[in-house]
Design a protein that fits this description.
The complex is a heterodimer. Chain A is of the alpha+beta class. Chain A has helices spanning 2-11, 24-28, 65-72; strands at residues 18-19, 44-47, 53-57. Chain A has a two-stranded antiparallel ribbon with strand order 2-3. Chain A starts with a helix and ends with a helix. By secondary structure, chain B is mostly beta strands. Chain B has a two-stranded antiparallel sheet. The chains are: A alpha+beta, B mainly beta. The A-B interface holds A 1, 3-5, 7-9, 13, 16-20, 25-33, 39-56, 58, 60, 65, 69, 73 and B 1-13, 15-19, 21, 23, 25-26, 29-41, 43-45.
């Protein structure tokens, strides 16, 4: 959590950086294989105003992701 | 777990944010939400 705070403040992220220390949420979203280990995958979702999944990015491209998302909103 | 599919209801979650606040997905209903997962810093992936 402290690391995230530092990271977010360093780059002045205008959005919250969340921690999923138990990995439970990551597993539910298919971003983690299990709660016991392994690293999160760079997957991403757009969730619509109705709380339903609007878009799935199985491997978010770090260099084009912002533009990819903006094009879909 | 596999990825969610388009049209699935996004599972609700409540997680702590870097600024000490708490983010609950269901509280953001009515807005578009972008979730971007990333591995912990300095780990492979």
């Amino acid at each position: 959590m402290a690391e995230n705070k530092h990271f977010a403040e360093k780059f002045q992220f205008p959005y919250p950086l969340l921690s999923d220390p138990t990995r439970a949420m990551g597993v539910q979203y298919g971003a983690a294989d299990s709660t016991s280990g392994g690293n999160a995958k760079r997957v991403a979702y757009i969730i619509g105003p109705d709380s339903k999944v609007k878009n799935v990015f199985a491997k978010a491209n770090t260099s084009t992701f912002a533009a990819d998302v903006l094009a879909l909103l | 777990m596999p990825l969610l599919n388009v049209g699935d209801t996004a599972p609700d979650f409540t997680l702590s944010a870097h600024d000490g606040s708490t983010v609950k997905l269901s509280a953001l209903r009515g807005k578009n939400v972008i979730l971007w997962f990333y591995p912990k810093a300095d780990t492979p992936g």
